[in-house]
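Data card: per-record layout.
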Amino acid sequence: MFLIEHDAALRLTLARQMEADRYRVDHAKDGEEGGHRVAGALRGMRFKVKVRILNLP
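The structure for this 57-residue chain is written out next.
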């Protein structure tokens, strides 16, 4: 799972909870950083991608 969240405390809390639920989590602070990291990781790979956007308050 890849998590993008600008609030560092919230990002780390969510990542830890997902890891506790046995997800493998990578995360970034913003869409630009996340986009570069995801593009690099996906280069040459073929699989289904699911995107979930949570607009938390």
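Known properties of this structure: The chain has a mean pLDDT of 82. The beta strands are 2-4, 26-28.

See the next section for split statistics.
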